[in-house]
Amino acid sequence: MENCIFCSIVNGDIPADKLYEDDAVLAFKDVNAQAPEHFLVIP
User: HIT domain location, by residue (predicted)?
Assistant: First the structure.
């Protein structure tokens, strides 16, 4: 996908505050958090 921000995060092109990563998922803190513990999980 072109211009996919999540692809760029997975590839390491955009830095992220990673909480968890394995072969199936990546979990990281949202830069625009709406709650004290707001994070995203992507495949």
Answer: 5-43
* Model pLDDT for residues 1-36, shown as the tens digit of each residue: 678 999 999 999 999 999 999 999 999 999 999 999
Using alpha carbons only, give the angle 28, 39, 23 rounded to the nearest 5 degrees. 40
| Domain total of the chain | 1
- Tell me the two tokens of residue 31: 């830069």
Q: 0.85 cut: is pTM over it?
A: no
Domain that holds residue 36: 5-42
Beta strands in the chain (DSSP E): 18-21, 26-29, 39-42
